[in-house]
Queue: 3 jobs
Job 1
Amino acid sequence: MEDFVKFERIDKSYDGEVLVVKDLNVDIAEGEFLTLLGPSGSGKTTTLMMLAGFETPTNGEIFLKGTPISKIAPYERGIGMVFQNYALFPHMTVQENLAFPLEVRKVPKADAETKVKAALDMVELGEFGTRFPAQLSGGQQQRVALARALVFEPQLVLMDEPLGALDKNLREQMQYEIKHIHERIGITVVYVTHDQSEALTMSNRIGVFNDGVIQQLSTPDVLYEKPENSFVAQFIGENNKLTGTVKSVNGQYCEVDLDSGGSTKALKINVDSVGQKTQLSVRPERISVGADNAENQFTGKVEELIYLGDHIRVRLNVCGSNEFIVKISNEGNISFKEGDNVDVSWAADDIRALDL
Amino acid sequence: MEAHISTAEQVLLTTDGIPLKDSLKKTERRNKIKAFLLVFPLLLFIIVTFVVPIFDMLGRSIDDSQINQVYPKTFEEYGKWDKKADELPPEEVFKAIYFELGTGDKIMIGRALTRMNYSKSGWKSLIKKTQRQIKKDLKAETVITSYKDRLIEINEKWADRTYWYAMSQMINERTPIYYWNALDRTYDAEMNVVRQSEERRIYVKTWIKTFKVSVYVTFFCLLLGFPVAHLLANLPLRYSNLLMIFVLLPFWTSLLVRTTAWIVMLQQNGVINGVLVWLGILCDDCRIQMVYNETGTLIAMTQILLPFMILPLYSVMKVIPPSHLRAAANLGAKPFTAFIRVYLPQTVPGMSAGGLLVFVLAIGYFITPELVGGKDGQLIGHWIAYHLKTTLNWGLCAALGAILLGIMLILYWLYNRIVGIDNIKLG
């Protein structure tokens, strides 16, 4: 099957000196929810703007259903978009806002009315049609923006940090709502955010951006469980890092000498040769405390215990790292307190030797 | 049910048992007094320099009391004259005016003369000659049997009933005559409102011209100001600051300098004509007359009032997020449609604020039309100044001013009805 959207060798520079996007190659399947995740200035919004047509790629071509779209004006692309601050037109009512894309497409009036009503019902704002955007709450405005981007039935919808301005509870609620709408109407969505939990909640696939390059493009579980480099490991989820030197390589494993002394067996991901410096990454919930494990056992001093109800966060001093976090699920059997020395260990399959 | 109502009507009390409203009033009072004291000097200043003069002007525009102080007896007797029965006023009127002229205060009579001359020219010389003669009579203690015959003997114009008819305009202490004058109307001998004679009809023409010029100036300011304001609002800060200086530069230059600069530019041997002739577009004998007429007034006023349009527009455009136009494009609107449907409606507060500002300034403009307007580029302000300084007909001045004020209030009211005054945004 042909890819729905295809970025081919895209470079983008604003000033001819710095590349904000470097050699971007992404394929997006029809009906997919793809999130571009990354810190600010990583090039994710620029990528979205190129797809919407508000920025021109400096090099390369974007294909929409096999057609190159660089020369097509934004208003002819038929791509829906939800803007960061919603960009609702303040002088039009909610209905007029929604009818706008239909009017400029010369959809017959009766048809347009039905569609506007359906779109408003979809976001559960049926009774708010005659209000002006300023009379709505942030969450309601957000929904109107979403409805407006969908009302003309585009096959592709872009979202540029649409939930950034909402408070935490509303944001989570809206995440599910957007996810469900996506599942229901089977539209292709490209979503930009810097919030990793948002990305993990909604996406089929996530492209992690840094420095203008996609570091890893994968499903949420793979990104979290199997980060391919230290940036992804660091950016997605919580992560304990240790540094060391590769001592020996053995199939898919390697032995690493830690800088603070001792050595551990780890999965060989991003290192090739003996003697190379590496950053080891292990998730806080994959560490066992007090268990008697043959390999990868270290002693740590408990610096801090943080009670979080369902689990307890323990900050330890392990292998010279003062920020070593362990999550222990709360089963009522925590036997140590701050200042105690405890044994910590991890399986070789859970610790990944990445680039430094 | 009963109980429910009684609780709803119960007075709300504070924790200390004082009624809540009293307590609130008490705490708010201090702030109110403070706020009032803060604005009091300004309020006083506005009352003294703005409100009082305006009401004084409105009073003057209908005031005719001065002349009534000079001829109280004459006017009283005049009221008894049956114009249909007698050709001339009765003997008592002649007697009253004889003594009031003979014994009245010279300065007061002089002032009243100016007023009398507005209703009919010729009064001035008639009264002056008569007054001299009466003074001689009184000194010589001449015995007069008929004051009527004596006055007609002094000057036969006293037998001309048009003079006596003209007096009826001045009998009342309040008169609408100045308003009628300001609209090219006057009274005839029978106190009917009639049009002025052909050569004296100047004000209606000037009112129309004032309106026309103000509308044109507002329109041209909008036409020229809109793109500039848009540019100002959308250029990078570095360039927009520079552009802003160019917009504001005229404010830092004297109005007189700017206006005379336009004379230099526009006159027949001026810069523009010179360049056109030099380029061969115009022949030397067909230089265009661009100044000392309405064109000159239009050009100069548009340039001078332009910033008043640009600044409100700019402040409104500055806060329209660029994402709105992007959203419009994304939703399928071509650039022109996006501009008309999304951008333009959002600039309405700025356009109306600028438009109102420019129009109000233009309608009362004086210096520029005075200097570059020549003979047919004069606006109503010219005549107000003329009567204020040259003819000293302050009543007419006040009436012209009051009409101007009335027009502005009507416009403001209309504007409020159509656009809504809270839709205005000055920056």
Job 2
Amino acid sequence: MPTLSVFLDVPLAPKTTSKLLDDFQQDEDPNKVYLGYGVCMTGEKIPWLSPVVTRTLRRLIHDPSFSYTYLPEHGLEAFIRVATELLVGRHSPAIAENRIGGVHTIGGNGAILLGAKFLKDWHRGPRVVYMQQTQREQYGPIFQELGFSLREYTFWDTFRLVSDTGKLFDVVEHAPDRSILVLYNSGSFILPRKRWFKLSKLLKKKQIFLFCDIPDQGLVSGDPDMDNKILRYLVAQGFEFFCSQSLSNSFGLHDERVGNLVVVTVSNKSLLCIRSQLDIYARYMWGSPPALGSRVITTILSNPALRMEWKKSLRSMVENIMLTREKMKEKLRLLCTPGSWEHLTGQDGMYSFLGITVEQVDYLVTKKHIYIPMNGLINFTCINYQNIDYITQSINEAILTIGPGPQPKDPPKTEVMADDPESKNLGHMTSESKSLGLKAPGLSAYLHNKK
Amino acid sequence: MAERESLLPTRPSVQRLGRDRLLSPVKDFRIDALGAGAGPGGVRALAAALGLAMPSSIFSDVPQAQPVVVFKLTADFREDPDPRKVNLGVGAYRTDEGQPWVLPVVRKVELQLAKNDSLNHEYLPILGLPEFRTNASHIALGEDSPAIKEKRMGSVQALGGTGALRIGAEFLRRWYNGTNNASTPVYVSAPTWENHNGVFGAAGFVDIRTYRYWDAAKRGLDLKGLLQDMENAPEFSIFVLHACAHNPTGTDPTPEQWEKIVSVMKRRFLFPFFDSAYQGFSSGDLDKDAWAVRYFVNEGFELFCAQSFSKNFGLYNERVGNLIVVGKDADNVVRVLSQMEKIVRVLWSNPPAQGARIVATTLSNPELFTEWKENVKTMADRILLMRTELRSRLEALGTPGTWNHITEQIGMFSFTGLTTKQVEYLVNEKHIYLLPSGRINMCGLTTKNLDYVATSIHEAVTKVQ
């Protein structure tokens, strides 16, 4: 028996919880605000939960047909069906042709993991994964663990303070053939039709494998059937792709970990083969998925009245977010805060870049007890009628103290030219902020102004 | 630059609250205009228009994996129209009516939880529900465990026993016996639950071996073989041990035999990884079933123990498991858990709540706890009864061979010792479904089908060699 522990050499891993949240929790200031939550919040500072979920939970408890036995490895069939239909539409040609299917997973994370494992084993390519900066913290380790190399890209234009889907062209052009492209929250993709056509041709030419990630369907436009039209387009174009679907945010049922890995392929035969392999990964990862969450969601989605009610609750949630954006912009205008704040309403969904410099972020955190992630991406549902005045006044104060924030403007042409296309890097859009090791939007513009 | 600018349709903010904005966020995007959404022909039509041939899948070399034997057995059983059919292959408890049993205490707690409006549905912490982790670990180790008193244990909530094994395996591959040493031998019993091989293999271990366990001739434990294999195993090998009610043989070492195992494992520096899926379920007594794990802890071992609450709570569907880590001191455990947190982040980020809430509520409330123990005993007693009944019937029929192993084995499963051919006979001629290994689930027996099963086994043994 060794007298020393066999775990003697195990190093202490850095804490996975964010330091920002820790600091926030220890802060005793009554005005403190945390704008970095990963879930929808309501005005009462509690996570949002669609009211129909609570009622369905209560109804299901009296359902005599509820079985407590294991679900199959790939999960609840009925759930996979309704969730997939929600994603690509009931009349999708892929459903008609029986070449779309899913595996019920432990949240979006589990879906990404299963998909990534499959790609590692069966996808022939350079093992390069492109993902948005904002996704890196969550999904980066999964791909890295499996031996993929990560490259970041962003749609956020630090010069013009807008989210620009057109940047995808640069990413795809620079990517090696057969790379994997993770498209996060594609609900807000807007491109003219001709550009879509061009993009899909480019994707096919370079054989880029798409891995879509839909964490909050319906939270972009307020209507789940309107979000993610891009997926319907991809299906119609005959693309083969994966899509990780998490329903935690859309229903507010975070703690039951309901996810779905959707596989779209070219024929029923290859679908069955792919799914049989995914089943094996699931068998040795978690056996089978938990039942409750998927039952609740299946019940809501299959019952027209409940589904309607859910959509209504989602819509009012999104209207609230839009209103908050509007109000915030208005309040900043009334305070005569220097700078343009159009980008607050120009972005979609729960999260948005605030578009202020790292120094201003730092000022807000240290002086005003407003906790904002360094990348400046904030969760708008954390802003409510009680704290909105304090937040806007503090932003105003930060900008007056530190100096004006970045203004929307054209990117400097020289820097664009300076980029070496051979480097196959992320494209010129992110290279400056990346080389500085900082991801704050507005930073490059800020530095540029200083010059 | 002008071109890039034009990619973005102008989006005046005033519109953003308007109804039309809500209804059509993707204005520039018309699938039907492309003629692709118009049904099955769409893709091909479009592909032709683009000048592309209908592509074959980029994954065309992916083979279709074979379904698991148990699932096939269940499917065959379902399709069998014979009224006498019996399924002895299921992996879960069944009542005397052949139905799954919802534990009354689980039902009670569920109703309580459903009424609780203050329940928050935010994500659980990465390591799981704290009340669950503490209470679950105490059940396995015992309240007065030195590991608990000395604060040198910790645990991680997992998705069932499989998930707990997986976290442990992932951790050991990364940090045990060197760094990222996938070649540390992992020993599993012969035979064992097939997931043991699968989970360690999936976690990256390349050297998975078996240790002798079942003596088919004696229909009991092969202690000599087991000890020999332990002696010959390289130092620091990992040994997966069944805490109680060995799956599939139903045969456990006695306390005296465990003592011998412990002395070899100590001397050879072998790492015990317990799989505890049936606590309380085999003898009806929680402490008795946890004896082996507690003995190892008392002997000063550092160990892992994967706990599953699927069987003893009848909560197969909510995936409740717990991985217990016992270390030499608190500092070691803290470091191990910090690494496990990283592993969970990659595996499932954070576990589901419902099952853990049910178990934690039950275990922390003395009244509910007592009720649960009674429920567990009900299940264990039924299994014990079926064992005695089957044995006495076979002996009364004068079926060749000895049948005392049926009552000597414990837990849900029994290794009957029937040959593959005899099993085939039972499946094909008698509509009695069981695994080719001869493993039967005692819960598949009911007072109604006992006679039929016993006479069928008698027939199989006498007719088929």
Job 3
Amino acid sequence: MELQSRAPDGPIETAWDRHRQAIRLVNPANKRKYHVIVVGTGLAGASAAATLAQLGYNVSSFCFQDSPRRAHSIAAQGGINAAKNYQNDGDSVYRLFYDTVKGGDFRAREQNVYRLSQVSVDIIDHCTALGVPFAREYGGLLANRSFGGALVSRTFYARGQTGQQLLLGAYATMAEQIAVGKVKMHPRTELLDVVVIDGKAKGIVTRDLTTGRIERWAADAVVLATGGYGNVFYLSTNAKGCNVTATWRAYKRGAGFANPCFTQIHPTCIPVMGDHQSKLTLMSESLRNDGRVWVPKQPGDMRPARDIPDAERDYYLERIYPTFGNLVPRDVASRAAKRMIDSGHTVVKGGQGVFLDFRDAIKRLGRDVVADRYGNLFDMYAQITGESPYEHPMKIYPASHYTMGGLWVDYNLQTTVPGLYAIGEANFSDHGANRLGASALMQGLADGYFVLPYTIGDFLAGEKPGFSDTTHAAFADAENEVKAKVDRLLSVKGKQSADTFHRRLGKIVWDECGMARNAEGLGRALEQIPALRDEFWSDVSVPGTGADLNQSLERAGRVADFLEFAEVLCKDALTREESCGGHFREEHQTVEGEARRDDDAFSHGAVWMYRGQAQQPERVREELSFRYVKPSQRSYK
Amino acid sequence: MKVNLRIWRQKGPESAGSFQDFPNVEVVPEMSFLEMLDEVNRALEAKGQEAVTFDSDCREGICGSCGAVVNGDPHGPGKANTLCQLHLRSFQDGDTITIEPWRAKAFPVVRDLMVDRSAFDRIIQAGGYITARTGSAPDANSVPIGKERADEAMEAATCIGCGACVAACPNASAMLFTSAKVSHLGLLPQGQPQRFDRVQKMVDQMDAEGFGGCTNHSECEAACPKEIGVKFIARLNADLIKANLGNLRK
């Protein structure tokens, strides 16, 4: 099969303008005749639902949380990038585009990234108008800070709670649209299948998490804004509820899944403390503006940090990467930490971790300034570990944080199923093989506020409006499948909780398909995962019934999908015989241990197409071409 | 270390509830409170018994999903933390820990520790927004906002909508929540055009939802995981008076 990216040729600076001119629009008076389903209410979903409703479309919005305001975008800490150049430090749309393509290790579509950089400036304007209280200077103008992978200061922030403030802005507009009846909100409702009729997405099947009722919803188009699959590792910085179910269901209904092996391991998280642990907590990348990463030079040196003199410390990021220092991109920082640990330099007794130290920042800036910048993060750290970062350096270690892979989308953000769109982290588009810090918020809002609301018109303009036939056989089929799966989960009546299986799956995927991967380990994972899946279906215990509120059932359904998805993830990692960005194959590295790409063989997006339960999925390619940012060995030295 | 748990179990909003005892639960001090409940549930599920229902998502104190009254305190002992940020090191070996849902007329129990907080969403829908069409905004730096004012707006905006303020209040009032939103938007120049309509509509909705009135106990401030102050309630009241006396609307 051939993938059509629909990305415009010609000068990249005018590509988005020309594209908007070329695609079809829906007449303002006709918009109210169309009905769009938006699943997920994070930054992408909330901003899309709000904007579509403002434009006049009728929107139905779904989320599994009790309120749309709780989607996991809310936990994003550090900031949002925009090419405003308010700092007069040489930033531009082109530079943000360049940094993002390079940061992504040359595995993203240039035209998409350029558009993202262009609309980044509009996002800041719009969010400010919505009352997002971005940090400001004393003169009243907006403040910025730096993030990894960039030599300019382009990150806007609201303390360490930028995601929360941006989400509350989008949520508020959505609330306004709910009040006027343009958005119909369905909280505590989980998507369990996508309905495809004559090759087009025409609805979804959901489960009401309070009553257990399985319901059918028809629409003229379906938008998935359901986030990433980082919880496949079990331990991650994602919220407990984050899952792959929606995108996995879409995949099984014909939507291609692109680059699942591009997963981001974030370098600065609080290390694992014990077997009971349910999740890991991120410490914002912004801390690397002033914090210095180090390990003792002597392996096994377990003296308290303060007793280790400077001469016996290895500030390894500053040593290896003098140009970017502590602000190298995430993949580079994570792997460097791993190399230090692997060579015996851990600072956690019986565990894994490196120091992130603020001693020098406090000396240089004073405690008050440091508290003003990072106070809430320091408090959060102290709450979890019982240690104050003002007195002791933080201990940090990499953890699963974000997934660059996702449903393949074209330039219109449409998946391989017409009428089915994927936005935000749920799609694969803009970050290539590694996302730069403060770019997830940017992409989620770019997709939701400024891209999808226009591009979806191109599809809708060709559709007869008002599709509402939930009696169609495709709905009945989907509903029957959903019900059968629920019944099957309940009927196993085994001895192990779903969470136990999730933990075991996470360990396999982290060990064999985590920060470093090799063919042998991936081969092992590909044997272990199906075996674990079989065990799950013969020994999982899901108490209660389906026709009722049942969180055990919710957990089990999500784990069942992760158990299928993990296999495609490992297959993708095995097939991509190169290292790039977050995907590090040990067989493909430079002598210094950096990632070595193979542009001749792998300058493409790998898109997995479902071919039935009994068949292997098909791997299809979208070839990438780089006309502006020429691929080179990424160097942050 | 071992603790004895008393957990509120209630099938639904109309059913009667009661405490279920879980004696001698094995825990470690590094464990978070919700991880302890996870372990309880893992054991229940393995035995084929129904798990304790509770809301939780981000587990880092920002989504506002979790919350329960622990030994009489919303979000348990300690200042400025949500339930997910509470750790077992705050308890002693042999302690008995009583865990109940938020109790308020406007927050009906859904099941066990899970309550329905959709009343908060409806308060926001009544006016907790600034109307702005996507794409119509002027340059973000065209309206300077003094740092102190921006910081104060941010202070109010940190509300996570968890409902601890309501649970802590003897009147089950939602004034701290409502005032935080009213103040966040009312302090900013962008929020001025709708300022007085907003406060009026949000307070009307708050009353319609069945929340009690504020009688200045300040228990809300003590329970708030984001330490939002009752000064914002004073600000709401001032705006509400102005809203009611049309000629003061400026």
